[in-house]
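Batch job 17 of 40 flagged for manual review because the log was empty.
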Amino acid sequence: MSKINEIVEKYRLEPKKYIRKGKTVLLETEDGRFAIKEKTRKENTNILKYLDSRNFNYYPKIIEDDGEYVVSEAIQEVEMPLDQKMMDMIDLMALLHNKTTHYKEVDLDDYKKLYEDISNNIVYLTSYYEDFLAIANSHVFMSPSEYLLARNTTKLFTSLNFAKQELEHWYDLVKEKRKQRLVVLHNHLDMSHFIKNKNPYFISWEKADIGIPIFDFYKLYKKHSIEFEFGEILKRYEQHYPLLEEERKLLFILMAMPSKIEFYENEYDNCMVISRLIDELYKSEMIISPYYAENTK
């Protein structure tokens, strides 16, 4: 707090109100609203400068960056329906990717490492759920959460098998390629990191990085898969930023893979977590299936 007081005194902000949101302190002053946040990754300053060079300035104006803290303007959000907010966010994500698209030379090891990482994860998840179900089946009476997962065994392992088969097809597509399409990834997208006023803005850029474009969409999907219809959201995104065949296939592989469940002592919580997992697998299938049906016509 002493550092924040120093910043307040330096800029003579005369705050009327302090609001703490996580690691950010919002100040309401006579001269406007300001956000003070401790930095976690110094290199993000360079990414924001790069965004400026690409005419992408949809983030709060930086007032000072002393290497330890960042002082920026705090945007007052306009309330809107959540579905509309999501679509506006997707439009801005597509614009970010369009503005920062570039190609990088790659060798076999780059794609091979990604292939092996995903393959190992599929093997691990398959073993993890096989072990869980073996233990559940050994009980005289299954717990409600065990029974819920056991009832959906087919969906669970069908999704894992789909991911395994498609991973082989994806690797066949990319293993001879020598260039990879990359963009600036916000890398931390959720509804709370998008603000709309006169213009749209992304906030919380501390995890921003360079990578394959589908990872922003995938992480957003994992955050909000149950709340929104992502089939339409994906179509909206591709209207502005069409995915390459190998990118879309990689996205679908990741979406089809079930998350590892972390169990709680509370059985109700366990049932809720498993229910969300199963719902997400069905939602992923509903998004993915039409693309494969079109290819078989």
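Reviewer: the log was empty due to a logging misconfiguration, but the result itself is present. The mean pLDDT is 89. Unflagging and moving on to job 18.
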